[in-house]
Amino acid sequence: MAVSISVVLLLSVLAVIFLRNSGLKISHALVCLLLGFYLAGTSIAPTIHSGLTATADIVGSLRP
Predict the structure, then answer these.
(1) pLDDT exceeds 60 at position 2
(2) What is the pTM of this model?
(3) Which sequence ranges are marked TM in the entry (predicted)?
(4) Which H/E stretch holds residue 31?
């Protein structure tokens, strides 16, 4: 749960930055949002979730 909230917050911040710099149009953001909702409802969702969890574990275990 915490990982998915962090990912959502990170992606939201990136989307806002891109929108302010005119690198991402509103229509592009809506398409990305819809794609995420549709992917969450498919059979590939557990694979995506486990991949993101594994990546978060690897990044969390790194020491500066």
Answers:
(1) no
(2) 0.55
(3) 25-45
(4) helix 26-40
